[in-house]
């Protein structure tokens, strides 16, 4: 059973956690900073980032944390955030692509894409691409990307990425989390071809009580609990991410999730389902993201 007690000393390492002000991202950032890492809290607005920083400093005055603004729904904000990181940091050991939005009313990103596809996938694709040169030159660096168990019931509808045909909030959420997993797998493949030593690891946190359900009604949340069983506290959901970020047992190109049916429990390495491993879909999604963002990597 892997827990936060297994986290080795992280002093000297620099890490970024996106969506660090809430839920799993906050728990992740807190544990990593308490274990000595310098953690950049990348949040949608400065107030949220500063609030998270103060909550961590209340636990430990010595925690090395930095509050920063990253709005993943706007590729311009992603570029600005990355530019600042590249100008002010000489290493990046771990990038955690954690931030996510789920089942909002139909909304578009600044560039006109469906919000969940834009924030959860495109924003993190661009962020990883901009920061890749820094990750590449940091020995033993890792890119951790959060998916969801729901990926298994999803597919990528390349004709509807701006919701030009129809909008179904849950379908689009699952599609975006499948895109996150395809991204992690395809990135591992491309890093391998290039011969770089960066690890790309996917995680999914199981069912957790967080703000992710903010767009659902109490009845819809109750139905989710009925279907999936008891939800974990976010500290427990963060364990899979923490394992991926620091454990020697984490493997590039693999998925880490809670051991009991993927919804509850402690971190375990599992096989990825075929819909996220298909190389033709991976290539198509990657090339599309390169075209939209204008970023080519690794
Ligand atoms: N909770 C679960 O059961 C569950 C299950 C499967 C997967 N996940 C995944 O776990 C990750 C963390 O979610 P959570 O459960 O911790 O939810 P959460 O409490 O709602 O946290 C989501 C975080 O993402 C941030 N975010 C949303 N839109 C953003 C944007 N445009 N730019 C930058 N940051 C943005 C949020 O910022 P604001 O607070 O400012 O909105 C918040 O910090 C997500 O990737 C989610 O898909 C969660």
From TrEMBL:
<dbReference type="InterPro" id="IPR036291">
    <property type="entry name" value="NAD(P)-bd_dom_sf"/>
</dbReference>
<dbReference type="GO" id="GO:0016491">
    <property type="term" value="F:oxidoreductase activity"/>
</dbReference>
<keyword id="KW-0560">Oxidoreductase</keyword>
<dbReference type="Pfam" id="PF00106">
    <property type="entry name" value="adh_short"/>
</dbReference>
<dbReference type="InterPro" id="IPR002347">
    <property type="entry name" value="SDR_fam"/>
</dbReference>
<protein>
    <submittedName>
        <fullName>SDR family NAD(P)-dependent oxidoreductase</fullName>
    </submittedName>
</protein>
């Amino acid at each position: 059973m892997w827990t936060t007690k297994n986290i080795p000393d992280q002093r000297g390492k620099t890490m970024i956690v996106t969506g660090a002000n809430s839920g799993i991202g906050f728990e992740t950032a807190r544990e990593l900073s308490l274990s000595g890492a310098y953690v950049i809290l990348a949040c949608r607005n400065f107030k949220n980032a500063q609030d998270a920083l103060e909550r961590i400093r209340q636990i430990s005055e010595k925690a090395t944390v930095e509050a920063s603004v990253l709005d993943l729904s706007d590729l311009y904000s992603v570029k600005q955030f990355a530019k600042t990181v590249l100008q002010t940091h000489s290493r990046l050991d771990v990038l955690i692509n954690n931030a996510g939005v789920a089942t909002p009313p139909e909304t578009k990103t600044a560039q006109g894409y469906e919000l969940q596809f834009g924030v959860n996938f495109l924003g993190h694709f661009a962020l990883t691409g901009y920061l890749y040169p820094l990750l590449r030159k940091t020995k033993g660096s890792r890119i951790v990307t959060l998916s969801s168990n729901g990926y298994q019931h999803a597919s990528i509808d390349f004709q509807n990425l701006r919701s030009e045909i129809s909008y179904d909030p849950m379908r689009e959420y699952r599609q975006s989390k499948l895109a996150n997993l395809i991204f992690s797998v395809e990135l591992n493949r491309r890093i391998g071809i290039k011969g770089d030593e960066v690890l790309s690891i996917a995680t999914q946190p199981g069912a957790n009580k967080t703000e992710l359900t903010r767009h659902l009604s109490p009845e819809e949340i109750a139905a989710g609990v009925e279907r999936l069983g008891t939800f974990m506290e976010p500290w427990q959901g963060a364990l899979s991410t923490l394992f991926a970020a620091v454990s020697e047992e984490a493997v590039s190109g693999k998925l880490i999730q809670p051991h009991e049916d993927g919804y509850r429990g402690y971190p375990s390495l599992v096989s990825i389902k075929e819909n996220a491993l298909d190389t033709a879909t991976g290539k198509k999604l990657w090339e599309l993201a390169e075209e939209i963002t204008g970023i080519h990597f690794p």
